[in-house]
Structure formats: C-alpha cells, structure tokens
Amino acid sequence: MKFLNYNMKKLYYALCIILVSCSQNPEDFKQHVTGYWEISEVILNDGTKKQYKINETIDYIEITNDSIGIRKKLKPNFNGTYETSKDIEKFVVKIENDSLNLYYKTPFSSWKETILKASEDKLQIINQNKVLYLYKRYTPITID
Questions:
Q1: What letter would DSSP give residue 78?
Q2: What's the average model confidence in pLDDT over 117-123?
Q3: What is the pTM of this model?
C-alpha cells in the first residue's frame, strides 16, 4: 500500500509539472482570473480527490491592477444577490519563473498560491501544500 501511495504522489507531481510546463504565458491568465468561481474538485497532495457537486459559498476573485488583488467568500441567494461577511483577503500578484503567483498576508497568516491555468470558464490553483483546486466559472441560479 505504501508503494502505491508513493507512486500516486510521483504521478500527481509529474502531472502538475506537465500542466505548468504546457501552460500558456502566465501574463495571459490575469485577464481571466477576475470573477465568481465555484470549486468543482480538490486534489490533495496524496492524490485523494474530493468532488463538489453543490457549494454553499463561492469565491469572488479580482485582480484590481497589475499587482494587487482581492478574494472574498460569497453566499449566493436565489434572487441573484450575494451575502458576504465583508472579510476580504488581499493579495499581491507576481510573475516568477513563468508562474502567476498570488501572495496573501493577513494578521493571522501568510501564504502563496500559484495559478496553473486560467481561462474563460476554468481556473486551477495549487497552494504551497501542493493541494490543487479546480474551479469552474459560477453561473447564478435565479428563481422568479
């Protein structure tokens, strides 16, 4: 069993490297990051996958200029509005080693995330713990 987990980890890291190396220019990612995003899947560093079919909250991410951005959690309502706790995480955007990195700093912690892919409808982010987050563009549900 340990042999299988070790090989799964190697495969996971190899896939991440391939994703990064086959990606487009990280500068091009910036134009797609701003918006409402819903987590569809999380892949832990041991290869374990968790699917998200329904989310109570979504992420709003915005790059406000070339080097600054914000992220906040929102709870969508059925009438097309959102509830928020008004907590905002600010980040600094840096392109380093052909990667688009987001550096967060709060009074409680600091961390880095790397955007592996950003397109009109998909976003892939890996954090410093090698946890991969797969997002899809959020589409509001409205009930009249």
A1: T
A2: 96
A3: 0.79
